[in-house]
Task: inverse folding
């Protein structure tokens, strides 16, 4: 998912920043994380700079445990290999994913349903799979991560057309039809989704019904506002949590991790740069070495 | 293999492309949205090659250009998006509106494509995977066959080997025989080179075979898989090449903005592809200072 | 994986063997009649571990010792012979005469064993191969299943994944986390480490993690596959270790002569295994000058 | 197969040397050869030193195209990697073998039959597979080479108990039952055996019947002597060739390739060495660098 530079009303952070900081708390120190590109990756870098310095990030291009000196725009950027513990092949890291070696994966998506199934392939609209309204990037490694990683965290902007009762196309399996043992019956090895971090709050999944429910809201957000943005009758935790505002330290660390604001700030941030030289300068200045 | 057993496979990019890449052939590209062989792709477009069947994992920059230039008839792959930059505009136009021509898409996951090339690289008819089970990727792709494994009865998905006609792979170093050394991640390149009927290596540096022999552990692709070796410095630009130059996020951003309209894309194509005789002219148009800045940046972090 | 995510996995050879290698467990060893972990094998014998199920490709030196010492109950593998030196005497005595105990043998080819570990390393239930078709290996091994491939109808043989309890792998360099770098051929070690439930790395040198990071392309086995890291210089002797020491053909020849009789073998075992408290004492008994000559010889050809 | 230091009667070379020199002529320049250990390997090194300098030798341990500075005693010796073009994994080179990248393979064996099937697993004698008279090393990579390599050359000492109508156990397929298309029907990709180099002469295979026949005899050997050493009614080529004696240059190159005579000379040669230092000295003196 892509960033935007606009501050949340009355706050000193953007929705993207809040999502990155919230997601970063899902990583634990010493874990191995298989992380997709964009804001999910920044969340991983941030976790390494904050509470999980020994987190190893794995890229599907074949890089295992790089030092996160600089931010990556793609999983295949040379930066993804900076000081890596092991530089290997794509098929090998997917094999290790399937082998159960990776604890956590973070994914974005365009559409999600109540059982955590993700669509990143196509929004059918009036059309169908062959001629959709919007063609999305496709699975990439998303399906593989959702199939086999220990637990999955999903990051998505909360919008009603994205949170639907049934996705047009299951690119990445969540809990499928939600029936008991649906994942195991299909042959899936990973644990499935544990959290959906959105721009308004965090959803989790009921251990029995496997249905997504509202677990945490951000400061200043109303639960009802969230319920209106979801396409099914959303359940809300009895002990609904309210997340704290990000601390100054968290925001500073995050902004240093993406110093030109190119991930979190989106296209607008590119235009604000005077040119490539400023990008090079900012990258070198904030590189953590 | 005797035609591959030659000491000197060096040729120009023009010659390598025209010799091995034909209208309608199936093709795969090395790299993984990083170390993609953009220079070779520009040459394919300049030569007006049509109806390519591209079999690949994640190969956005390559595909968006080729699709926009009307070179692609079919895509079997996993991902066509610009990471943190956005969707692939030419791919969208082709799939949603058939502009400049409709393309046939077959969806796989990256692990599935990886297994297809592993099978191809081992000359096996198929590989199994535990990906895609329960998903709609299988529903819409009849070539994925779910079976119970005959040892434990667990479900697995079989995927068929990929055996493209051609692989084009950019590496950091190769010798004239075709021994190719890759630094940084290696993607599926070791398998792609083996799976393809013909393999073209483009590289940042040509090194003597003696230098290859000093570091045989870094040779990903041995000479016997290789048909042509082409020296193309900055052959991945605007993508990154580990140890040589960093990603040009601003140039790519500009491409993305321009390619939002068909007119904008055609303008871009005229300027950077049709309007350049060869890769050297493209580098000049981009600006050698800009390229050197990216080399400077990369070498602060990685050196080969 | 949390128990594997530790910064420091260094331990003694005694501790690593006693922690992970139990009576009756299944086991595989790294190397390929070269870079075999002989020091670990001596320790297994000293600890009197019994009924091992060894799953391996070509692993003669290791197996002849373990079989002669009565540690092995079953062998699933491809080759037990001494290359240019001769047959494996202890293996012959066990199979032909049940001395010191009968062992159960299951024959595979090296490619088949390689595919078994590739399947294990990818967590797949099986792999296909085009080896062994038409041969008696299949006739006497009911776990090889010949099928028609569902894409082209050609015959292929399926082999089941190998998932041993333990892998012991000797490498040139490793850090305390367990990132293991191999120079020279790599055998099936990358897959063995992944396929095994527990992996013990023995190594010539412990290096800082910073040094690993300077050459990530040489890391064959990442830390998350590793449980124990043991520093054992000359840990392959009398076999060779690329970049560190050459093969001692004369010492091996003497072993081969002595092991022609059961008595001779037991004498050898007393002298070099039971009679040595640990690997250091074994090195002393062999003679440091001899070891240094082999290092000198190797370094004329290869350096890490 | 193992060497012996005894000269052929009336000649200045041993049977092992003659076999190595005869085999070496089967390699062509620029080919890729998958070669087993022992005398087959020395034949490959010799070919590189004589007429095929660009021959690439592949070892199943994972070494591709080493410079043959020194002789190897095992496929996994460090020497097998000296100056290699590519150092990789065992499964990878077996994959390349299966992929058709290797032109020629050379194998030894304990038993062979009229259709070129090889046994290196067990001589049953009065027993059976489970409790054989002699347990041999097993397939190793032999079966794989015989299954998939372009063409196979076999080296075996000519002895009646080795050349049998039907092997006890087919470790490595030759032409199986000799019926037309037997290899293709089984699914085998490689071309099968083209020559059997023995201590008395060279056999080849009839293109239609796939039966092994006598093609070449060594100087001083009678065809009848060979016929008596084979366990079936051996056919002899109408234009039976007589091989020339090895030249002095060939013998000198061969002896430099195995300077301590440890491969070609067998166990006796080990005893003639004064010790490890002499071995080191000889190796360094004759290393071709």
Result:
């Amino acid at each position: 998912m892509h960033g935007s530079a606009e501050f949340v009303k009355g706050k000193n952070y953007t929705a993207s920043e809040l999502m990155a900081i919230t997601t970063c708390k899902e990583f634990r120190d010493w874990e191995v994380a298989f992380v997709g590109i964009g804001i999910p990756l920044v969340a991983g870098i941030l976790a390494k700079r904050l509470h999980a310095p020994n987190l190893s990030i794995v890229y599907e291009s074949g890089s295992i445990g790089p030092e996160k000196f600089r931010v990556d725009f793609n999983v295949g950027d040379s930066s993804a290999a900076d000081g890596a513990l092991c530089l290997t092949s794509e098929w090998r890291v997917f094999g290790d994913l399937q082998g159960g070696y990776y604890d956590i994966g973070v994914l974005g998506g365009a559409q999600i349903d109540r059982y955590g199934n993700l669509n990143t392939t196509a929004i059918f609209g009036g059309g169908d799979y062959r001629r959709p309204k919007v063609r999305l990037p496709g699975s990439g490694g998303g399906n593989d991560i959702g199939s086999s990683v220990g637990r999955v965290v999903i990051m998505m902007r909360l919008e009603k057309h994205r949170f639907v009762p049934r996705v047009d196309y299951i690119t990445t399996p969540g809990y499928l039809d939600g029936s008991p043992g649906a994942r195991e019956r299909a042959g899936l090895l990973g644990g499935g989704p544990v959290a959906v971090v959105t721009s308004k709050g965090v959803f989790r999944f009921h251990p029995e019904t496997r249905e997504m429910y509202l677990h945490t809201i951000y400061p200043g957000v109303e639960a009802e506002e969230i319920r209106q943005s979801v396409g099914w009758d959303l359940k809300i935790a009895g002990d609904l949590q309210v997340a704290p505002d990000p601390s100054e330290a968290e925001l500073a660390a995050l902004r240093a991790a993406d110093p030109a604001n190119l991930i979190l700030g989106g296209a607008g941030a590119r235009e604000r740069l005077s040119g490539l030289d400023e990008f090079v300068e900012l990258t070198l200045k904030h590189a953590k070495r | 293999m005797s035609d591959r057993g030659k000491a000197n496979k060096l040729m120009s990019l023009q010659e390598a492309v025209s010799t091995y890449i034909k209208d309608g052939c199936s093709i795969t590209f090395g790299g993984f949205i990083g170390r993609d062989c953009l220079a070779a792709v520009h040459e394919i477009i300049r030569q007006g090659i049509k109806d390519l069947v591209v079999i690949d994992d994640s190969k956005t920059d390559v595909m968006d250009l080729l699709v926009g230039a009307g070179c692609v008839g079919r895509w079997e792959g996993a991902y066509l998006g610009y990471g943190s930059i956005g969707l692939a505009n030419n791919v969208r136009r082709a799939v949603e509106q058939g502009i400049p021509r409709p393309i046939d898409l077959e969806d796989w996951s990256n692990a599935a494509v990886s297994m297809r090339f592993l099978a191809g690289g081992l000359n096996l008819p198929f590989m199994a995977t535990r990906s895609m089970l329960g998903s709609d990727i299988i529903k819409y792709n009849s070539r994925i066959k779910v079976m119970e494994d005959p040892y434990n009865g667990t479900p697995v998905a079989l995927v068929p080997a990929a055996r493209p006609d051609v692989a084009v792979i950019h590496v950091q170093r190769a010798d004239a025989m075709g021994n190719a050394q890759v630094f940084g991640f290696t993607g599926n390149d070791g398998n792609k080179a083996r799976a393809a009927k013909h393999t073209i290596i483009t590289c940042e540096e040509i090194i003597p075979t003696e230098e290859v022999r000093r570091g045989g552990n870094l040779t990903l692709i041995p000479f016997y898989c290789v048909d042509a070796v082409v020296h193309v410095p900055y052959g991945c630009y605007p993508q990154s090449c580990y140890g040589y130059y960093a990603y040009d996020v601003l140039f790519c951003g500009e491409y993305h903005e321009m390619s939002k309209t068909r007119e904008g894309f055609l303008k871009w194509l005229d300027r950077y592809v049709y309007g350049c005789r060869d890769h050297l002219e493209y580098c000049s148009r981009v600006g050698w200072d800009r390229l050197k800045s990216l080399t400077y940046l990369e070498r602060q972090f990685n050196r080969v």
Notes: The first strand of chain B starts at residue 26 and ends at 29. Chain B has twelve helices and twelve strands. Chain B touches chain C at residues 123-130, 145, 147, 149-152, 154, 156, 158, 160-161, 182-184, 186, 217-218 (CB under 8 Å).
